[in-house]
Specification:
2 strands; 152 residues; two-stranded antiparallel sheet; mainly alpha
């Protein structure tokens, strides 16, 4: 079976992700915030003081990527990084006053973006989309486990 370019669901998802990222990037630009940095900020606005490792887990990113983004956010004055009192190897991220104030500007942008993206999509469709995407991730995780077993 030969699939055409647009028949690959992974390509459609990738194209959608590029469109979503490009759109939100333009909306966040006035706030000196990249889309991936915004994800860290949103998590910190919900729970200030998360560790870089916890952020990596929550975002499904590698620790090096999170460290780089955190460093950039620190240089912009939005966060500060402190070593954990419990584990000196672990860095925890805390919002600065500037980072806290940024929330009032960025959250309305994120909410308007979500409203635009989900326009004319029912709650049931959103639940179904989440279920399908979760299944896709589970399929990949299962395949990765099988690949590792074969490599042993």
């Amino acid at each position: 079976m030969n699939l055409g370019f647009q028949d690959y669901i992974s390509i459609r998802i990738h194209q959608t992700d590029l469109k979503l990222t490009g759109y939100i990037k333009s909306k966040l630009e006035p706030y000196n915030l990249a889309p991936e940095q915004n994800l860290i900020m949103m998590l910190l606005w919900e729970n200030d003081g998360l560790s870089q490792n916890k952020l990596a887990d929550l975002l499904g990113k590698d620790k090096t990527n999170i460290a780089r983004m955190a460093s950039n956010l620190e240089k912009k004055g939005f966060i500060r990084r402190n070593y954990s009192k419990e584990d000196r190897r672990s860095l925890q991220l805390y919002l600065t006053d500037s980072g806290v104030k940024l929330k009032d500007k960025v959250i309305p942008v994120a909410e308007a973006f979500n409203k635009t993206v989900t326009e004319k999509i029912s709650e049931e469709e959103i639940i179904e989309l989440d279920r399908i995407l979760t299944k896709m991730v589970q399929n990949l995780e299962k395949e990765e486990i099988n690949d590792r077993k074969k490599a042993l």
